[in-house]
Amino acid sequence: MGVLYQVAPLNDEIRPWLDDFEIDHGSLPDGRHPTGEIVAAAVLALARDDIEENAGEEGVQYAIGMANVEGETGDWALCEVRAGSPTSISFEKGSPELNATIVKEIARHCGPMVLIPDTGEAPAVITADTDITELIANWEHTRSR
């Protein structure tokens, strides 16, 4: 069984919930929902080894794979972008590090974002300046794996 990750912009609606987890979001500005074009640009900007785009009536799914040192598929992500207003983004399973890296790229355009695992563990606030290696090392969700 894998983890489903939801992505939401940092805003006044989500701040009290982050406070419940004692997650510092301090003076960060609000983020905004990305457009489908911003998500596509974020995925493509990573220029990973393998990106497959599948468009349907309800949105787009990106399957992103990274080759490891041996040239075999290593980390991967499955990013679902549901059309509508606002655009809905989620990751089905996949590498928390790669998922966070994609969210960081989205945050470059849309401001702070929150990556929320469906496990009940604390979410992660991700900005354009987030050190992903440090985030993964200190995030409760990844430490419990």
Describe the structure.
- The protein has 145 residues and is α+β, with helices and mostly antiparallel strands.
- It has a single domain, classed as TATA-Binding Protein (2-Layer Sandwich).
- It contains 5 helices and 7 strands, in the order βααββββαββαα.
- Helix 2 crosses helix 3.
- The radius of gyration is 15 Å and the shape is globular.
- The two termini are 13 Å apart.
Layout of secondary structure:
Elements (H helix, E strand, L loop, with lengths): L3 E6 L5 H6 L15 H10 L4 E7 L2 E9 L5 E10 L5 E5 L3 H15 L2 E5 L6 E3 L5 H7 L1 H4 L2
Antiparallel strand pairs: 1-5, 1-6, 2-3, 3-4, 4-5, 6-7
Give the % helix.
25-40%
- Tertiary shape: globular
Class of secondary structure makeup: alpha+beta
CATH class: Alpha Beta
Topology order in helix (H) and strand (E) letters: EHHEEEEHEEHH
